[in-house]
Specification:
By secondary structure, the chain is of the alpha/beta class. It is built from seven helices and 22 strands.
Amino acid sequence: MKFAWIMVEGTNWDRKKEAITTALESGIDHIVDFTDVEKIQKLGNVTIISDVEGADVVMVGRNGEGDGTLIIPDDLSQSKDLAAITSFKRKGKKVAAYVEITSKKHEELASYLGRTADYLILLGKDWTVIPLENIIADLQKEDVKLIAAVSDYDEAKVALETLEYGTDGVLLCPRDTSQIRKVSELIERIDSERYQMKPATVTRVEAVGSGDRVCVDTCSMMSPGEGMLIGSYSRGMFLVHSESLESEYVASRPFRVNAGPVHAYVMTPGNRTRYLSEIETGDEVLTVDKEGNTKTTVVGRVKIEKRPLMLIEAEYEGVVLRTILQNAETIRLVGEDGKPISVADLKKGDKVMVYLDESARHFGMAIDETIIEK
């Protein structure tokens, strides 16, 4: 997952407060600061990155070899910044190494420190040139998060996409607050997953008695065409529509998906599945639209109630999928035309959108294994 940290330069507290508040509203809660830590902590639940030992993440290098002004030793094992990082790590602290890339020697220092630090913050004059590529390639197998210091959306896009893989994150030093929201939206787009949806033909629809059904209420509003991937089989899941449509029986609940019984799978971030019975407040699930575009959504509440159920079976190119949903007019799948279709109106021959997965699942993770589900 890509991420952003923010640092507001200067000492103007009103400007800093405005930027940090905007960052928090945009989902950015890691703040780099060296002068107003106590004030910042009062603005919300934040993670502080600073050069004092009491910080959540200690920064090393800003006033040392990494700041581009002091001489770097020829033998990098004698680096004062490395010694500081090692000392803090021994105390159980998370450490961010800061390196301003002004020469080839600083590039070498960055790669060297990146083998010990938890985070490596890189400051360069122009990330369209080679140093960032070199450092990403050199540290790709190391357990360090690479962060490029950027000032706006364009620089962030270059850093996050360099060498296709890009840096893990960016340290945004914004010229104005509009850049904060733009960078946050950029990261959301980069991290969003996409699932290739297929039109499966309905082959069976029948009532199967009653059972414990799960409603998933999220902290986000869903639009018509959006829902969640739900199914009884891990090899394929149905796009179950949100309750975002008005009905003559109930008002719309655009934050809700009436998902199915407790045993069913729901797709979560990282192409992982979980049982609906496991989902609870604060968990993350994926909401999916008819094109297969996704958003990560926080669960606000789960309701489990006994309700009448309906078995739905569909087939796509020889692959048979089944799921069980509540037998009610307000429960809908998504048709081939992208429009919601109520399970009360569903019949053999209808086309509904499904996602097929070639992998088996072990504790929710996709694996290469043969598995039989029926």
